Amino acid sequence: MVIEVIRIGQRLVRDDRVTTHVALVARAFGATKIFMTEVNPEIKDTIEKINRTWGGNFTVEFIDSWKSIVKKKKDEFKIVHLTMYGENINDIASQLGKEENLLIVVGAEKVPREIYELADYNIGIGSQPHSEISALAILLDRIQKGEQFLRSFAGAKRKIIPTKKGKNVLVNETRD
Amino acid sequence: MVIEVIRIGQRLVRDDRVTTHVALVARAFGATKIFMTEVNPEIKDTIEKINRTWGGNFTVEFIDSWKSIVKKKKDEFKIVHLTMYGENINDIASQLGKEENLLIVVGAEKVPREIYELADYNIGIGSQPHSEISALAILLDRIQKGEQFLRSFAGAKRKIIPTKKGKNVLVNETRD
Q1: Which of B127, B141, B151 should be substituted to probe chain A, the one whose Cβ sees the most A Cβ atoms within 10 Å?
Q2: Would you give per-residue pLDDT tens digits along chain B (176 residues)?
Q3: Which of A11, B26, B64, B72 has the maximal Cβ count within 10 Å?
Q4: Least CB-CB distance to A162: which of B17, B88, B148?
Q5: pTM of the complete model
């Protein structure tokens, strides 16, 4: 399964930090790419720096129009729109897990109405307000059943060895 | 099981938005309370407004010292510290689910070393950097196995009926 994410509707500056966290979740939870519009270029630098230290090839792609990306992807990807108004994830996770490729649409406070129609699935991570960051994380965890946390990230300079107390980090000095 | 959350180490202004999202996740995912230090009072107003509209009795309590709260709670609660260096959630979720009461410690970028020792569990939601918002969400979802999304929030003015397209909201006009 290939998973990509598209961030729509974010407001410049005000949403930068949240958008950065959305991108970090996408990367850490097994997506390969995030598309975003109107964005602070520093977000891309932040993610590339994380890749250099912690490995993997997660990419950030800046786009002009979310709609053309969604329409283009629709041939090969199912479009999953995260919204607190959608079907409960508890009822739909197992079906989603069987799809081949997913493009996950992560909105900010206001999203264009059209996305509800363009989406193959409108999914609610519960029906209470919380955060697009937590919504994306739960969706990716449920679809992949936690397996995203078993994968290694190629080319990492640093790798954490999980431990009960303190910090245990393998440092690969040979990479530079 | 009673679940409470304590936010530590956040920086004023810079972390306000993230702390608000942490509080919203705590509320939406079945915790009853969040403790926080050094915080913008607006966060409490935001959460109370959410309670009035969407129901429930989730509370925000401002504190002076996280350490005295953690030490006081240790008698009745297991202390769970979220850290990317901790034991993998995949290995420990079922054990956590059997505990009676949990106090979950959510750090910001820097946390005091002591917390690793004070905690009964140091848990990593994977070992890659992402967000304290997503980390808290995954922990609460895994512990409660999604049951938090089936509970209703008492006294809600608005209640979402999950739906495949668009928005379906029950509005309770009689509450005011």
Answers
A1: B127
A2: 999 999 998 777 778 899 999 999 999 999 999 999 867 888 999 999 999 999 999 999 999 999 999 999 999 999 999 999 999 999 999 999 999 999 999 998 788 999 999 999 999 999 999 999 999 999 999 999 999 999 999 999 999 999 999 999 999 866 44
A3: B26
A4: B88
A5: 0.96
